[in-house]
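User: Watch each token:
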Amino acid sequence: MLGFWYKEFPQYPKDHKDFWRTRLIAHFLLITTSYFLVLTLLNLFYFASYELALIDAFGLFVSLGIYIWFNKTANVNIAAWAVTFMVVSLFLMFVISVGGHAHSLFWATLIPPLTFFLVGRNWGSIFSAVAFGVCAYLVYLQQQQTITIGLGSLFNLIEVSLAHILIFRFYEKTRFSAYQHLATRNIEIQHLAETDKLTGLYNRQKFDSELSRLIAKDEGVQSTNYLLICDIDHFKKVNDTYGHLVGDRVLSEFANILKDKLPPNTLIARWGGEEFTVILTGESLADVTTQANQLKEYINDHPAANIPITISIGLAHIKFGSTVLNTLEQADKALYTAKKNGRNLVYVSDNNKISAYQNSIKQPNKSNVNV
């Protein structure tokens, strides 16, 4: 029943501004249809109040008519105005017909939350002001009268209280759902803002942020973090020979190799073009240098996207008291030296001294890197 009642409109997906208005219209029409049905039967058979039963029956058929029309047309604006006019007119008609007695004035308290949501704050204010003005006038007419609290008053209080609970339960659901959707979208936006679209790695902005955090974090301790800048040698020739689409596949597959062959939780980013930056953790500079050379040897022996490539690597220690720019400059100088001296090499910048990787051992150190 409820699945049938709450029809899904493809033109109003969950992130559409009118999605929750469609839900409120369906929600409220379900409530009013149920209410008017019960009230019609009560006034007809229990209270023998045929005038009120007629008003309630009219409300029942109007609610069903609006719902059927809305399901066929999906016109949110017209449906919202139709529901608003129905609510205000029927509530006021009922309140006036009983002269404001039997606590019927409480029904007017449902008008603001409904009209504000359906037709906006300006028209909601107008409808609410009119309704409360009528209520104030009816109270004025009741001055000096003795008020009798009967069963009708009890029913009015119970019905209005239940209606308020249902309406505000719905509002809370919309607020919570909107908050969850916004939080999800913020996560997606943040991911897009810090991710390179081609490779799926972090981008330069995210890398700079993480590098800055590491430099600040290492205060008072000896850092075990090292920065590598990897450059694919002669990458322009790959683009010129095979085309840019193949070049993109080489970059993408090279990024996957980095993620697969470097230790878990290694921070890897695409620095720009064919340059990639890596933050490695190791026991010593020699340990990290060995890992870098093992990576270089693996790339040398395994083509990316069926294209043979080599890489040059510049490596520097990430030190507290330094800066992002200075750390990058040290690694970049080492990279420049590697490229200048023939490429497919690993060079290290240590205390402003540039030196080549000297260890000739090429067997993988499985405790450090899986190649």
In short: The chain is about 60% helix and 10% strand. The longest helix spans residues 151-193. Residues 359-371 have pLDDT under 50 and may be disordered.
